[in-house]
Design goal:
heterodimer; A: mainly alpha; Arc Repressor Mutant, subunit A; 2 domains; 5 helices; 3 strands; B: alpha/beta; Rossmann fold; four-stranded antiparallel sheet; 10 helices; 29% helix; elongated
Chain lengths: 130, 320
């Protein structure tokens, strides 16, 4: 059974953290179509959080068509995300690590790295727009 | 008589201009608030803010001097069986008889509550690994709190009031107790009102927030909406409160800039914001602390000015 976690210091609202984890796990292939998500009560007890927060997260997932409730059975994953193939993921990670090392050697700190990635991403997006 | 909400549902709890006077001093005054059914509401405030006064009027232990309390649409009367049966209560010090066993305590609970659910009480302590034959004085603080909660739940009351339930517990017992509360909240569409002065942990437990200080409600509503309605603005130091969007709640001045927590919607920020001003979302703790530190504009003596003449929230600035 899928298990959620909660980062108390991230500043991201708890319900959004749950939504992000499902999205991310779908991309990484840890969650697949047909998987059952834990019950609201189980998540509330496991993470010691307000059950209404879990309800809100599940509602958001349904709204995004990533999950759906089946009456009396629970909430199930309904989306088929194409997970990144493990080999591709490994290659990408290796080249990213090499790049991060180069950035570190060039004297870029975390903030500078994040800023550079954001700028590069924006430029790429602009290129794609016809 | 049953009172309905605008959307037709009956709130679990409603207080209407509720007040209680002790001699010449008002412990709580003009308290109007609502908690919807199914909410887990936090009641936050410093010591002597009026929290216990409010809770005792809600559970029917204390007669209001003015105003009224209704629980699921029914007006409460202090010291009546109907009122006491509709609200479960876990007191701050988890008062149980030291020489009783857990089973004896449950026996007492059954004798005193017509709707007592013995199976539920027994199943709960069993799940927690607390033997029914153990004497109360041999239970840990955490176990005592859990037995108190089991007894409150076994009353089968739709509203549960918990007065500082974890303040005497160590961090592990605290977590286990709240795990119990969160699981019960999921189980049976119960409504919880939990008082606390520990602000940092509340965000994950509560979806409804009530901030009480100086005997008055400072802030109340759905936690998410309240968070979304506030911003932390960073502005040049000389900027007066009046030029800021919305209402300034709390201000911290540095040499060149000020940080001001304001109550303002996105539209107000867009309309009144200036280039170079930074607006950040507020955390739950920042929000609560800002309202708790807000200078009081209310009087607690016997004859306050009429509401219309009372100074508005913006008129009294924090000392610079």
């Amino acid at each position: 059974m899928f298990r959620f976690r909660l980062d108390g210091s991230s500043g991201v609202p708890p319900y959004l953290q749950l939504v992000h984890q499902v999205r991310q796990s779908l991309l990484l292939g840890y969650l697949r179509e047909g998987d059952r998500l834990p019950t609201v009560k189980d998540v509330a007890a496991d993470l010691v959080i307000n059950p209404n927060t879990v309800v809100k997260a599940y509602r958001q997932l349904e709204h995004e068509r990533l999950a759906g409730g089946r009456p009396g059975q629970g909430t199930f994953i309904t989306a088929t995300a194409t997970p990144v193939a493990p080999e591709a993921q490994q290659d990408l990670r290796a080249s990213l690590e090499a790049w991060l090392r180069a950035a570190d050697e060039a004297g870029l700190d975390d903030e500078a790295v994040t800023a550079l990635i954001a700028v590069a991403r924006q430029d790429l997006k602009k290129e794609r727009v016809p | 008589m049953t009172q309905h909400d605008a959307d037709g549902s009956v709130p679990a709890l409603r207080t209407d201009r509720l007040g209680r006077r002790y001699g010449k001093v008002w412990g709580l005054r003009d308290c109007t608030l609502e908690v919807p059914a199914g909410a887990v509401a936090a009641l936050v405030g410093p010591n002597a803010a009026g929290k216990t006064t409010l809770l005792e009027m809600i559970i029917g232990l204390l007669e209001p001097t003015e105003g009224q309390v209704s629980v699921f649409g029914q007006t409460s009367r202090a010291d009546t069986a109907e009122t006491l049966a509709r609200v479960g209560y876990v007191a701050q010090d988890h008062p149980l008889y030291r020489d009783f066993t857990v089973a004896d305590m449950f026996h007492l609970g059954r004798a005193m509550n017509p709707s007592w659910d013995q199976e539920l009480a027994a199943a709960r302590v069993d799940a927690l690994g607390i033997p029914l034959q153990r004497k109360v004085r041999r239970l840990s603080g955490g176990q005592r709190a859990q037995v108190s909660l089991a007894m409150a739940l076994a009353k089968r009351a739709p509203l549960l009031v918990l007065d500082e339930p974890v303040s005497s517990l160590d961090p592990v017992a605290r977590l286990e107790f709240m795990r119990d509360v969160m699981a019960s909240a999921a189980d049976a569409a119960l409504t919880f009102l939990i008082s606390s002065h520990v602000v940092s942990e509340l965000e994950r437990f509560c979806d409804w927030l009530i901030v009480l200080s100086h005997g008055h409600v400072q802030l109340a509503g759905p936690a998410d909406d309240l968070l979304a309605a506030h911003r932390l603005l960073t502005v040049p130091r000389a900027t007066p409160d009046a030029e800021l969007p919305g209402t300034a709640i709390h201000r911290t001045d540095s040499d060149r800039h000020s940080t001001v927590l304001v109550r303002a919607g996105a539209d107000q920020l867009a309309a009144q914001g200036r280039p170079g001003w930074q607006a950040d979302p507020v955390s739950f703790e920042q929000l609560v602390m800002a309202y708790l530190q807000r200078p009081t504009t209310v009087t607690t003596h016997d004859d306050p000015a009429p509401a219309a003449e009372r100074p508005g929230p913006n008129t009294k600035a924090v000392p610079r």
